[in-house]
Design brief:
It is a single chain. With about 650 residues, the chain is mostly helical. It is about 65% helix and about 0% strand. A hairpin with a 2-residue loop joins strand 1 and strand 2. It starts with a helix and ends with a helix.
């Protein structure tokens, strides 16, 4: 259908003088209503009809009407480009006439059509046309903004852009602000509707009209915003304006007016996101507003008023962990330490882990700084409460603080017990680092020999990927103590978890150890273990994962082989910790036997099969014993003889 319309438009625009009975304007406008996706082209066709007919003033009115009615950027671009080309073509024609003839323009036909332009000289006409073209280009941003606002009148960002276009025209800016706040519906707004009110008030403030700015803020506080945060932002901006002009008491009064929780609402409206209740009645649940009020009172108010605000935060339950820390720090600054500790405890009653973690850490640190070792039982009780509720993610820092306290003010044995609990309480990925700390503290407080038990426990509990560093560290310790056999046993055990391709540092360390402390037999055994491990890892890589899972015994899935370390055997996770030899003196008298030696059986193996080629026995061997052409054996001959 639109193709037929295009043909009709071509006929009309090319032959405007031949059309007498058809109302062209009404026809094209009906097409504009009928084809909303081609509005821009239809408006241009109508304007072109009047241009071809010589009615330039009417064409200009059509272009202006189109720019003020189109609702898409695409149609706007089509109409604006056509309008600018029209103005440029008229300007070029007038400039040619002015240069060549130096006489009045011959746009009389257009003027007769109702242009309303008085007799002008050629140069004045050129200047007037130039001014019209420049004005059109300057209005482009404003016209485009109008198009976008026609698309969505609740677009807050576009209203802000429109106000900026009138930054040098205060009257128009105020008119635009007034129209914006009256048009935008907060429930349908795109953006932050409260920012229009705040910017409106700031405009008056920048021009020295504080009284009008306060009026705008008071009106803004009564708007039905969609969320509590919008209304809270309005009140905060109101107080900030008073602070900028050093009206401190007025700022406190504004916040005191905003932060009021009616008693009848405290039990009724607990959810600030409940849209069934108007936003003004839910304002007291805004943490942002109360935090601003608390900061204001802390800097400008008295100690009692500040504490009252913080206590109100606890009462309405809009406090955050950071506000709890701020309140406690404020009380400590004023030497009210026990009140600060009570503030920490109130916060802990409201929050669980992980949100309670910073409160616990701050509480325990401040308690230790305050009392040191004077109230150990109370401190231990606090620590036990903390570690009893803590999650694995935050366990490491808490246990280390607990162990440090016991080490400084309590018993070293208790500190080691705490570290032992920490190794089991932390996440698996942090367990290796925790065992390293545990081992270093035990070695420092009780000697390196006491750390062997911790090493054994670490080997039992750590995942395979974390075994190599701890085992290398254990082997290095035994090597420093002169326990070469124990160190070799550790290397032999760790080898089963270390790939020769990926863990070359381990195998280089073992090789260096054998070169320095071993002999030909131990070095050969190290090479044999390396070859077996290469085969083990090659088999694991070749077999699919599901095949390995099916062939693996589920009872032995998580068990580890025992680790022979000198006189001690470190067994799997479910086994016992160690096993000692009964009589070391008698064992020392016996000749030592190399445990790595390969034993061979002295007896012949009957199961070996020797492939012997069988040949027929010559007949001469049997001689007369051969009867009937058959070769009889000795047993057959003996039977026949009987």
């Amino acid at each position: 259908k639109y193709d037929l319309w295009k043909e009709l438009l071509n006929i009309i625009t090319k032959n405007p003088g031949s059309i007498k009975t058809l109302n062209v304007d009404a026809v094209i406008r009906s097409g504009i209503r009928r084809f909303p996706h081609q509005v821009g082209h239809l408006w241009c066709a109508l304007a072109e009809y009047y241009v071809t007919d010589g009615r330039f003033a009417k064409a200009k009115d059509i272009y202006e009407e189109a720019l003020n009615t189109v609702s898409t950027v695409r149609d706007f671009s089509v109409v604006f480009d056509a309008y600018s080309q029209y103005e440029e073509s008229l300007l070029a024609a007038k400039m040619e006439i002015a240069e060549s003839e130096g006489m009045e323009d011959d746009d009389e036909n257009g003027d007769q059509g109702g242009s309303g332009i008085a007799e002008l000289s050629a140069s004045d006409e050129v200047d007037w046309r130039m001014m019209r073209l420049e004005n059109l280009m300057e209005r482009r941003k404003l016209l485009l903004n109008s198009v976008l606002l026609r698309q969505n009148p609740h677009n807050v960002d576009e209203w802000h852009k429109r106000v900026k276009l009138f930054k040098d025209q205060p009257i128009k800016a105020i008119t635009t602000f007034s129209k914006a706040v009256a048009t935008v519906d907060p429930s349908q707004a795109t953006g932050k509707p409260h920012s229009l009110w705040v910017s409106f008030a700031r405009f008056y403030e920048d021009h020295g009209e504080l009284k009008n700015a306060r009026v705008i803020f008071e009106k803004a506080a009564r708007v039905a915003y969609k969320g509590v945060d919008d209304l809270a932002s309005v009140w905060c901006a109101y107080a900030e304006m008073e602070l900028r002009h050093r009206n401190y008491e007025l700022a406190r009064r504004v916040m005191r007016k905003a932060c009021v929780a009616p008693d009848r609402l405290k039990s009724s409206y607990k959810d600030k996101d409940d849209e069934s209740v108007e936003v003004q009645k839910r304002l007291y649940k805004s943490t942002k507003l109360w935090a601003f009020y608390a900061d204001l009172e802390e800097n400008l108010g008295t100690f009692d008023t500040t504490c009252s605000v913080y206590e109100s935060l606890f009462d309405v339950k809009v406090i955050s962990p950071q506000i709890v820390l701020n309140y406690a720090a404020y009380l400590e600054e004023h030497k009210h330490f026990e009140k600060a500790f009570r503030a920490y405890e109130k916060g802990l009653d409201l929050f669980n882990f992980p949100h309670a973690f910073p409160i616990w850490i701050a509480y325990l640190k401040r308690f230790i700084i305050r009392y040191k070792g004077d109230k150990k039982e109370r401190a231990r009780d606090l620590f036990e409460q903390a570690v009893g509720k803590i999650t694995k993610v935050n366990a490491r820092k808490m246990y280390l603080l607990y162990a440090k306290y016991e080490e400084d003010y309590g018993l070293s044995r208790r500190a080691m017990d705490i570290l032992d609990r920490a190794c089991k309480a932390v996440e698996v990925k942090e367990r290796a680092a925790m065992y390293s700390i545990y081992i270093s503290r035990v070695a420092k407080l009780f000697g390196v020999t006491k750390s062997r038990e911790i090493y054994h426990e670490a080997i039992r509990n750590l995942p395979e990927k974390d075994l190599k560093p701890i085992c290398l560290r254990y082997a290095d310790l035994e090597k420093k103590l002169g326990e070469i056999d124990r160190a070799r046993s550790i290397y032999a055990y760790t080898a089963q978890y270390c790939s020769p391709e990926k863990d070359r540092d381990f195998w280089d360390s073992w090789k260096e150890f054998e070169v320095s402390h071993g002999n030909e037999d131990t070095y050969t055994e190290m090479l044999r273990v390396r070859r077996s491990v290469i085969g083990q890892f090659a088999t694991v890589q070749l077999l699919p994962t599901d095949v390995i899972a099916k062939t693996e015994d589920p009872k032995k899935k998580n068990q580890r082989k025992p680790v022979p370390v000198g006189d001690v055997i470190v067994e799997d996770k479910d086994g016992k910790a160690s096993e000692e030899k009964a009589n070391d003196s008698e064992a020392a008298k016996k000749p030592s036997k190399n445990q790595e030696e390969i034993e061979f059986d002295d007896e012949d193996d009957d199961d070996d099969i020797i492939d012997v080629q069988e040949k027929p026995v010559p007949a001469a061997v049997f001689g007369a014993a051969a009867v009937g052409g058959k070769n009889l054996g000795a047993k057959e001959r003996f039977k026949r003889k009987q």
